[in-house]
Amino acid sequence: MKYPIQPKLSRSQLRQMIRQRRACLSMNEQKQAGINLLEQIKQLPYIHQAENIALYLSSDGEIDTQPIIDWLWQQGKHIVLPVLHPFSKGQLLFLNYQKNSPICHNKYGIVEPKLDQTQICPLKDIDIIFTPLVAFDSDGQRLGMGGGYYDRTLEPWFTTGKGALPIGLAHDCQQVDSIPCEHWDIPLPIFVTPSKIWHWEK
């Protein structure tokens, strides 16, 4: 179901509205959405070719990524998770993630692996980056939480066309008519929701 959004909403107003919409989903709806999302993910040909795949641990009503992580482990894929860079402000590192990896909460209260330099996976070695988002629109634009972490991470891919393929993950209710864009925003070529795979030209 697509919800109409007034185009005059600011980015912050849009974030608030969609986060509230997402928070209204019941536990059963969240669980089923995660299961359905995995079924869509299984249809992506890129998944079967990839070795190193970046995901994230869901928070704040984000669609549940744990079914995807568990299934990818079963397929023998190597999972990495984002960690806030301790020295370079606004940057992400990606760390190897296994079932026994120690985790902690970062300054935003988001769960991430405990920083261990021996577990860092270079960005150049990652094949797919599944990205969280607050909203997406019909032009392939992604609205994040406002920190710009993923925009900075994906900028080399956007300018060169080389590197990890970014794929946005979202509930169906996070689609909106239009997102007010900024010059630093990086549009995504693919979004996956529980009901559909969306493709756009870069």
Distance between the termini: 25 Å
The CATH superfamily is known as NagB/RpiA/CoA transferase-like
Fill in the CATH topology. Answer: Rossmann fold
Following the backbone from N to C, one meets helices and strands in this order, namely HHHEHEEEEEEEHEEE
Overall body shape = globular
Low-confidence stretches: none
What structural keywords apply?
single chain, 202 residues, alpha/beta, Rossmann fold, two-stranded antiparallel ribbon, 5 helices
Please write out the topology.
Layout: H1 11-23, H2 27-41, H3 45-49, E1 52-54, H4 66-74, E2 78-84, E3 92-96, E4 103-105, E5 111-113, E6 128-131, E7 135-136, E8 142-143, H5 149-160, E9 165-169, E10 190-192, E11 197-199
Parallel strand pairs: 1-2, 1-6, 6-9, 9-10
Antiparallel strand pairs: 2-3, 4-5, 7-8, 10-11
Helix pairs in contact: 2-4
Give a description of the structure.
The protein is α/β, with parallel strands linked by helices and 202 residues long. The chain has one domain (11-199): Rossmann fold (3-Layer(aba) Sandwich), CATH 3.40.50.10420. The protein has helices at residues 11-23, 27-41, 45-49, 66-74, 149-160, and strands spanning 52-54, 78-84, 92-96, 103-105, 111-113, 128-131, 135-136, 142-143, 165-169, 190-192, 197-199. The protein has a 7-stranded mixed β-sheet, sandwiched between helices. It has a two-stranded antiparallel sheet with strand order 4-5. Strands 7-8 form a two-stranded antiparallel ribbon. The longest helix is centred in the N-terminal third of the chain and has 15 residues, at 27-41. The protein is globular, with a radius of gyration of 16 Å. The model has no long low-confidence stretch (mean pLDDT 91). This is 5-formyltetrahydrofolate cyclo-ligase. Keywords: ATP-binding, Ligase, Magnesium, Metal-binding, Nucleotide-binding. InterPro entries: FTHF_cligase (IPR002698), FTHF_cligase-like_sf (IPR024185), NagB/RpiA_transferase-like (IPR037171). It catalyses: (6S)-5-formyl-5,6,7,8-tetrahydrofolate + ATP = (6R)-5,10-methenyltetrahydrofolate + ADP + phosphate. One of its GO terms (molecular function) is 5-formyltetrahydrofolate cyclo-ligase activity.
